Amino acid sequence: MPQLIDQILANPLYTIIAVVILAVLVFAIIKKIIKLIITILILIAAYLAYVNYAGDDVQQTIDKTIQTGTETAKEAKKKVEENKQVQEAKKKIEKELKK
């Protein structure tokens, strides 16, 4: 790998080609991220418009969604902690069985 980098840096034509390829890749990644962000914002706006059209209070719906997300995150954290404890116990048992 270091030889390839040295070869690219030694030849100006290879360096220019590498820079162009890198720029195209970075541009493509940024473009996809921007499209994703725009899509998410459109979906959120459509959801809020639907909630408003349905007659619900938008702020109350947002608060309820945040609360549900927070509860889900807490439950997931609890499950991860339980899984860690199970894995630690499993390792101790395996260690004891090997003796």
Model description:
With 99 residues, this protein is an all-alpha fold. It folds into two domains: 1-56; 57-99. Helix content is 94%, strand content 0%. The chain has three helices and no strands. The protein has helices at residues 2-10, 12-54, 58-98. Helix 1 packs across helix 2. The chain starts with a helix and ends with a helix. The mean pLDDT is 88.
Question: What do the pLDDT scores average to?
Answer: 88
* Count, helices: 3
Please give the share of residues in helix.
Answer: over 70%
Largest sheet: none
How many strands in all? 0
* Percent of sequence in beta strands: under 5%
Q: Outline the low-pLDDT stretches.
A: none
Order of helices and strands: HHH
Q: Specify the overall morphology.
A: flat
Question: How many angstroms separate the termini?
Answer: 45 Å
How many domain units? 2
Judged by helices, strands and strand pairing, the structural class is mainly alpha
Compute the CA-based radius of gyration. Answer: 26 Å
Brief account:
It is built from 3 helices and no strands.
Name the descriptors.
mainly alpha, 2 domains, 99 residues, 3 helices, flat
Produce the secondary structure layout.
Layout lengths: L1 H9 L1 H43 L3 H41 L1
